[in-house]
Amino acid sequence: MEIRYATISKTGRRHNNEDAYKVIDMPQNNRFMGIVCDGMGGHSFGETASETVCNTISDFWKKHISTPDCDSKVKLACKKTSCAIDQKAFELHHAEMGTTMVMVSIENDVATIAHIGDSRCYVQRPGEGLLYQTKDHIQLDFGWEIVAKCFFSYRPEVAVPDIRQIKLQTGDRVLLCSDGLYKSMAPDILQARMMDDKPLEEILDVYDFLCEKQGDDNYTAILIEYF
Q1: Which parts pass through the membrane (predicted)?
Q2: Which CATH architecture has domain 3-226?
């Protein structure tokens, strides 16, 4: 198993960056893990919520490196992460805070994808196009988009992940991103650029340009190639 990856995370037109991300690359163990979290606007401490979730799940993965990836592993990580965000909220005088999460863990040639909220994962294959895209946990309320699932202080019942496993092939690419990235460009442009025959860093440079030009939010992405 070999993996290339590139990352980007920028404030955009906001005053501060409430996104968080982390990569754990363990080629000696045939494992790789990436995670992106997006602190929820309209609530305080969005950056604290995203960092707490990002770090807690990453630490769980590092501590359980010998445990095969599976649904129960993801759910246990999310359960412990809900407790961690509750503890952080308690330390901040019972602050209301929340974040979305999307992650991929690659073990040999199997990608385990999990998400809560509206941060997304895309998986594309050369010659076949889009294999998988996460479905946003969004509800409409009087015309407003409401995140129906997320990590939120004292709300463990809404921190329930969707989980999918995909067997990867050489050349497959996986994109994890916050909504600030995919909302800054048309879906066909995002997917076409994702499979450009260019270094991953150059593809993220294109996304960066489009987000700066057309976006109004923080934007974060991890672009991964399996070969």
Answers
A1: none
A2: 4-Layer Sandwich (3.60)
